[in-house]
Amino acid sequence: MNIVMIGVQGAGKGTQSKMLSEKLGIPHISTGDIFRDNIKNQTPLGKEARKYIDHGALVPDAVVINMALSRINQPDAQKGYILDGFPRNGVQLAALEFVKPVDRAILLELDDATAIQRLNSRTLCDTCGAIYGANRSPKISDVCDECGSALVERKDDKDAAAIQKRLNLYHQEIDTLVRYYEWKSVLRRILTNGNVDEIFALCLKAIEQ
Ligand code: AMP
């Protein structure tokens, strides 16, 4: 099954995608994570992406579409994918529909004020990508429960102007995705005011229905 997770930054897309990936045995593909890995490893793609990411701007479509489509064409994604952070606009949506159409789009709904609070308290593991925040604290402060590596803040979560810019961009672009997936009858909306396990149960139900 081909699944797309939609939601404002901080809505829990990364956390729920990882849980769904384990349960369904299909890969979690986060374009943001792929860019962060490339930045960490100082690849040419990372150097290009960094110019945009640090300021909360979107990476150009030509770069992100090629990267995302080549990832979903890998053998491990032949049974399906869970995309997180892609598509983000109408051009990306069209490219994805052309190559591997979406079966289910899950919209995790969260208001901006709560999203900003969550981004301010979010940390992630530099090694395995596990995410910590309001709903999940590490057992040992600043150390990942899963692999023992150091937890770090995302650079674009520290900068209030970059956060606001990402929220504005999200609201500008999301309407196209929501209207298209609604028309296609694959959109399911989930309110994210429960705990991680309650939201996960709703995601699974949304995939079945
Ligand atoms: P995320 O982890 O999804 O919040 O993504 C972090 C950053 O990576 C975003 O603020 C963008 O700069 C960039 N990015 C990730 N996915 C996309 C995309 N689909 N289109 C353009 N830029 C993206």
Describe the overall structure:
With 209 residues, the protein is of the alpha/beta class. The chain has a domain at 2-110 and 172-208: Rossmann fold, CATH 3.40.50. The protein contains 9 helices and 8 strands. The strands form 2 sheets. The chain has a 5-stranded parallel beta sheet with strand order 2-3-1-4-8, with helices on both faces. Strands 6-5-7 form a 3-stranded antiparallel beta sheet, with no helix packed on it. The chain is globular. The structure holds adenosine monophosphate. Adenosine monophosphate is lined by residues 9, 31-32, 35, 52-53, 56-59, 64, 85-86, 88, 92, 156, 166.
Percent of residues in helices? 40-55%
Secondary-structure element order, N to C: EHEHHHEHEHEEEHHEH
Gyration radius from CA atoms, angstroms:
16 Å
Oligomer: single chain
Looking at the structure, what is the overall shape? globular
CATH homologous superfamily of the domain at 2-110 and 172-208, by name?
A: P-loop containing nucleotide triphosphate hydrolases
Architecture per CATH nomenclature, i.e. the level-2 architecture of the domain at 2-110 and 172-208? 3-Layer(aba) Sandwich
Bound molecules: adenosine monophosphate
Question: Which regions are unreliable across 5 or more consecutive residues at pLDDT < 50?
Answer: none
- Order of strands, main sheet, comes to 2-3-1-4-8
Proportion of β residues?
Answer: 5-15%
